[in-house]
Amino acid sequence: MRRLVICLCAALLLVPPGMTPVPRAYAQQEDAATSYSPEQLDAILAPIALYPDPLLTPMLMASTNPLQIVDAARWVKLPANAALKGDALAAALQSQSWDPSVKALVPFPDVLAMMNDRLDWLQQLGYAFATQQADVMDSVQRLRRQAQASGNLTTTDQQVVSLSQDAVVIQPANPQVVYVPAYNPAVVYGSWPYPATPPVALPYPPAYGVGSALASGIAFGVGVGVVSSLWGLATPAWGRGNVNVNVNRWNNVNVNHARINNAQWRAPARPPGGGAWRPPPGGPVGRPLGAGGLPPNAVGRSNVRVPSNLVQRPPAPRPNAQRPNAQRPGGPGQAGQRPAPQRSPQAANRPVNRPAPANRPANPARPPPKQPPAFGNMNQGRNAGQFANRGQQSRQTARPAPGPRSGGGGGHRGGGGGGRGHR
Predict the structure, then answer these.
(1) Taking 70 as the threshold, does the pLDDT of residue 167 lie above it?
(2) Domain locations in the chain as residue ranges
(3) Which of 31-35, 47-51, 192-196, 360-364 has the lowest mean pLDDT?
(4) How far is 280 from 29, CA to CA, in rounded Å?
(5) Dihedral sign, Cα of residue 395, residue 396, residue 398, residue 402
(6) Which residue has the higher pLDDT, 22 or 200?
(7) Which DSSP state fits 94?
(8) What is the 3-state secondary structure (H, E, C) of 397-409?
(9) Which residue, 39, 131, 58, 139, is CA-closest to 100?
(10) Is the dihedral of CA 60, 64, 70, 75 positive or negative?
(11) pTM exceeds 0.70, yes or no
(12) DSSP per-residue codes, 279-331
């Protein structure tokens, strides 16, 4: 016993720290889903879905570089950089190696601070946009439809809300000034249909009227003047579920990186730090649950045209599927009674049990009787005389006794017939 204890202790000492084996079933469950469900996407996008399109687009792209967001949020707080505006700010950003989408957010320090304060949410947003770009765009439209239905998304002095090709578009009322909205997602969308996945709430900047946002739905802070060289780098293509990039403007800002020639934005091939895109280990909506169809109570379900791959349709019938009327009463696995068909009065007297057709046996399970051979049995020729005598005897027995000869011509012919039968 003592030797056994010593061997077990030695085996444990040989396992390096952090190398504790994980059960195979648990590991497969952890890696089973790599995409967020519609409920999770709606919760992630809820705090920013009502932002103006020119501001929302760089926020989505920049979320795929969370470390650069952190650097930019710190950089803009430095006293020497906080006072920079317009072209001076754009010139100071030339030396930074950040992505152009991150540079486009520097004129909005409150937005950078908000994204920096919720890094767990930012990582989930970046992973979702990098791997589920079309699903993210669809989620934004669902949320905007829901806010419209609740009466909290309308045209104001700060923004213009319009409908373009079945997509809800939000643009600044003044193209040179942008007002960043602040709202409570639990209020602006009305009743939230996913109790297990509540919407993410981001902290309000100090300058915003929180009480006004809670009362009226959406509040706006002080307008921010746009920096023309950093503005309008990309626009959402709602109909196609992706983002279009202004190639010339992008390349002018992206001086420290390779130039692009494709107008469709694509996520970096590898996330910051290298490797492959992997779901964040945690966050406000948990691990991915897997993309699937929209639930019946989805946000904006009755008001939004959802993509065809998310519409829940009944499965296509199989070629050998059972007909709907083939199920008879009597419970599963039991054959019920089919009601008797209605018969006309003329057909009431007809027999119900008709004989089976002559060309097929009445009982298919039994083989038909064997037919005698075409030439008969070879021994039957020897007994032909005996068969003829028996036939004549039977006919004589069945006939009545012959009467008088009057009119005996017929009797004579009858006897002759018997003689012919005998021969």
Answers:
(1) yes
(2) 30-297
(3) 360-364
(4) 15
(5) positive
(6) 200
(7) G
(8) HHCCCCCCCCCCH
(9) 58
(10) negative
(11) no
(12) --S--TT-S-----PPPTT-TTGGGS---GGGS--PPPPPTTPPPGGG--SS-
